[in-house]
Amino acid sequence: MRFLLALLLFSFVAAPEAHADRLTGVASVIDGDTLEIRGQRIRLHGIDAPESRQVCATAEGQRWRCGQQAALSLAERIGRRQVSCTVRDIDHYGRFIAVCHQDGTDLNSWLVREGWAIAYRRYSRDYIRDENEARSARRNIWSGRFDMPWDWRRAQRGG
């Protein structure tokens, strides 16, 4: 009994800002749609960004590292300030699926609106309006040609 009480107390002390439904802290950017807060991987809900090694093309055919740029843009946006993520689910890789905010801005929405990610309709319809705005304005990935991230991943796996 004493062991269980100590374990329960430790879990509250070890992660005071990591509740069942919220993770808060300074985030590290893993890629354009994945963050890490205190060792916890967080996949941004409802969006899919180009993979880190993915290359896009401008309207003129110039190749550029759009996946790397998406991650760098997210890192620049969040800096070293607090991010708060509301957990919606856990995926089959054990990552939290979450909507993350900073200073009142929905970061998932920001990525799609700025043209660094796509509304991932397979899982959500939350960011379709943001995608339409980015596409109409030809922002970032929408300024040229690119493979949808899920198609790019499938091609990398060989099928």
Automatic annotation (TrEMBL):
Residues 1-20 form the signal peptide. It comes from Roseinatronobacter ekhonensis. This is TNase-like domain-containing protein. Residues 20-144 form the TNase-like domain. Keywords: Signal. Pfam families: SNase (PF00565). PROSITE patterns: TNASE_3. InterPro entries: SNase_OB-fold_sf, Staphylococal_nuclease_OB-fold. PANTHER family: BLR1266 PROTEIN (PTHR12302:SF26), EBNA2 BINDING PROTEIN P100 (PTHR12302).
